């Protein structure tokens, strides 16, 4: 988001301070970031900002425990055990009918009526009521409906051959027309 903000600031500056016409002899009075920094170099700067912000946020957050990474990371992608649910954003309790009550705790209860909290809930996809009901069968149906990354050996070979063919065609076209 930080890099997007920096890029949007540059775009707004481009619209606010238009470049003088070529050959007009007018003095370029635009800010230095527009006159001296090429947009391709600015893309490199945005990439660096993105990398630095990603590493900084990663270093300041606590790592997830190993039992919550089953099948989520590259190294555990073929493990059949599903990762444990995270309790960071939700609190759940099971009532006598086997229905799980889930309450979000991302926004404190004293600020729920504020307009900002309603907007945040809408943006994040939360409903206006603070509790939703899920039965055990609903939870298992949701988990079973998730896509799998398993590939059969035949489909893997076919996809690899097609990837090589597309790469070869791309190289041929670049060399032929380049």
From TrEMBL:
It is found in: Cell membrane. One of its GO terms (molecular function) is D-glucose:sodium symporter activity. Its main location: membrane. The chain crosses the membrane at residues 39-60, 158-177. It is a multi-pass membrane protein. GO terms for cellular component: plasma membrane. Keywords: Cell membrane, Ion transport, Membrane, Sodium, Sodium transport, Symport, Transmembrane, Transmembrane helix, Transport. It comes from the Eukaryota. This is Sodium/glucose cotransporter. It comes from Plakobranchus ocellatus.
């Amino acid at each position: 988001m930080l890099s997007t903000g920096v890029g949007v600031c540059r775009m707004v500056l481009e619209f606010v301070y238009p470049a003088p016409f070529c050959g007009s002899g007018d003095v370029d009075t635009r800010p230095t970031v527009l006159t001296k920094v090429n947009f391709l170099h600015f893309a490199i700067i945005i990439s660096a900002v993105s990398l630095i912000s990603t590493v900084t946020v990663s270093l300041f957050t606590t790592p997830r425990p190993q039992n919550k990474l089953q099948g989520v990371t590259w190294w555990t992608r073929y493990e059949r055990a599903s990762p444990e649910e995270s309790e960071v954003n939700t609190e759940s309790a099971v009532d006598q009918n086997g229905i799980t009550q889930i309450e979000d705790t991302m926004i404190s209860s004293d600020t729920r009526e504020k307009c900002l909290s309603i907007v945040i809930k809408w943006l994040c996809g939360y409903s206006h009521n603070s509790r939703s009901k899920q039965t055990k069968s609903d939870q298992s149906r949701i988990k079973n409906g998730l896509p799998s990354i398993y590939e059969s050996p035949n489909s893997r070979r076919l996809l690899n051959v097609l990837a090589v063919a597309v790469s070869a065609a791309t190289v041929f076209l670049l060399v032929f027309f380049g």
